[in-house]
Amino acid sequence: MVWNPPRLVVAISAVGTVVGGALLTKEYMGGKRFQAPTRADGKVVIVTGSNTGIGKETVRELANRGAKVIMACRDIEKCEKAREEIVLETKNKYIYCRKCDLSSQESIRNFAERFKKVNYAIFHATEEQRLDILINNAGVMRCPRSLTKEGIEMQLGVNHMGHFLLTNLLLDKLKVSAPSRIINVSSVAHKRGKINKDDLNSEKKYDEADAYNQSKLANVLFTQELAKRLEGTGVTVNSLHPGLVDTEIIRHMSFFNSYFSAIFIKPIVWMFVRSPNRGAQTTLYVALDESLEKVTGKYFSDCAVDDVAEQAKDEKLANWLWKVSEKRRFAGGKCRCSSQLGGKVVIITGASSGIGKATALELGKRGAHVVLACRNLSEAEKVREWIVKCTGNEFITCIHLDLNSFDSIRKFVEEFKQGNLFYITGHQKLYALVNNAGSFYLTNLLLDVLKDSAPSRIVNVASNSHRLVTKLELKDVNFDNSYDYFKVYGQSKLCLVLFGEKLAEVLTGSDILVDTIDPGNVETRIYRNFPFLSNPVLFALQKPIRLFVVKTPWEGAQSIIHSVLRPAENSISGKYF
C-alpha cells in the first residue's frame, strides 16, 4: 500500500526544503569566518567609514576583543549612534567618534593632527601616542560624477586619494608602534579596473563602473607600492576583497533601490549576498591573525591569500600612481577662507573649461550668483548644468561673450546691465569681475556697476610669463613687423599686470579692490596652440613630466578664489599674487 501524504504536509515539506536550501546557500556564500580567539586588548585601531556596514561590524568585533577604536566618519551624528550601540553591547567604553571626511584633504589633515595630540592608548601624557592598526574601509560606489573638495573625481578621491593621504599622515605613529598593520579594503572589481593615465580624473569621459573599478585597482597598487617602501619597518600593509556585501555602498545604484528590485531581485540575490558581519570577517582576519604578523603586500579574499589581476602586478604603474598621488597630497596652496557669497553676483570670463570652470564651481558652492561669460555657449551650458548638479545652486547663468570682438563685449555688457538675471529687483549689482580671459575694455564698461555695488573687486588672471618680457614693444605693439608667440603672450600678461596697478591707482577711495593673479602652470586648453604641445609626438614625450609639475585647474583656481573671498577690510589693492 502506497502512502499518499496530505497536501498540507507536502506543501510544508516543500517550503521547508526551499527555506533550508536558501539558508544553506546563504551560509555557504557567506564565506569563511575568522574564528581565532585572538585578543586586541589595549591596541589602538582606526577604522574609516565605520558608522555603518562592514566598518561598523569591524568596530563591533574589535570592541568585543578589547581594542580601543577610533571611528573615523564623515557623518558624526550617525557615528555617535553606532558608537553608543556598540559600547552598550560590548561594555567597551574605549570607542570614539572623530570627524574625517575623505573627500576633503583639510578634514583628513585635521583628523590626523587631532589623533596625534590625544593619547588613546593609556591616557598618560608621559607616554607616546600609538597606532597599532589602520583599517582603510570607507568607500563610495558608482556615484554620479562629482568632485572632492580638491577637485578629484569622487570615487578615486575617497577610495584611493583620501586613504593615501591619511595613511601617509599616520605612518610615523604606525612605525613607532611596530609591529603594526595597515589594511586597505579593496574589491574583486579591481580585476576589471584600468588606470587611465590619460584621463585619471575622468574629465573627458565618466563611467560610474569604470571609475569605481579604477579606484579599487588603485587600492591594490597602493598596497603593493607601500609594502615595498615599508620593508624593514615592522609595518605591514595588505589589501582585501570583503565579498559581495549588503551595505549602504550601493545606495547610488538606482536599479537595486527600485521597487522592481525589492520585489523580484533582492529575494533571490539575498542568498548570495553577505551580511555586513560576514563581510567583515576577512578584514578581521588580516588585522588580527597572529600568523600574518610579517605578511605584507598581499591580497586576501575569504580569509586566505588570493591572486590579484595582472594589471595590479605592474610595478611601474604602481610607482607612477604613487607619484601622481603624492602630487595631489602636496598640491599647491588651498584657499582657506570660509566666507560665503550669499547671492552676490560674480562674472567669470572664459568659464567653460579649465581655471574659469573650476572657479565657477567653487564660487557656486559658496552661494554666488555666477555669470559664465563664454564664447562657446553650448559648452558653457553644459558647464552650467554640471555646476547646478554639483552644488544645488540654480543661480548660474550663461551669456555669450567673444573677447575677440568689441561688438560682442558691448552686447554682453548691455545684456548684463539690462537683464534681470537672478530675479533681483532694482539696479543690477556686480560684486566681483574675474577676468580669466580678457580684461581692459570689458572692465571699463562695467566700472559703473562695480562702483554702484561697492565694496566690490576685480581679479585679473595674468601669468608669471610676464617676466619673460623686459619692456613693451611700443613701436610695434601689434607685432606687425615680427611675431614671436612667446613674446606676444608674455607682453599680453605684462599688460595685465600694468593694467592692474594703474586701475588700482585710479580706483583709490572707490572701495573696489584690484588683484592680479598668477595661477601657476596649469593643465588647461590654453596650451593648445603651442607648437611643442600641439605636436602629438612631443606632447606624448613631455606629458609624463607635466603630470608632476603642472597644477590641476582646481589648484590653479585657488588664488583667484582667495582674491574673490578675502576680507574687504584688507584694503591691499593693485598687487600681484
Overview of the structural elements:
The protein is 44% helix and 12% strand. The chain has helices spanning 7-29, 53-64, 76-90, 105-117, 154-176, 208-229, 259-269, 276-279, 281-288, 315-329, 354-365, 377-391, 406-418, 440-452, 485-506, 531-534, 536-549, 553-565; strands spanning 44-48, 68-73, 95-99, 133-136, 180-185, 235-241, 299-301, 304-305, 345-349, 369-374, 396-400, 432-435, 456-461, 512-517, 575-576. It is elongated and about 105 Å long. It contains 18 helices and 15 strands. With 577 residues, the protein is α/β, with parallel strands linked by helices. The strands form two sheets. The chain has an eight-stranded mixed beta sheet with strand order 3-2-1-4-5-6-7-8, sandwiched between helices. Helix 5 (154-176) runs parallel beside helix 6 and helix 13 packs parallel to helix 14.
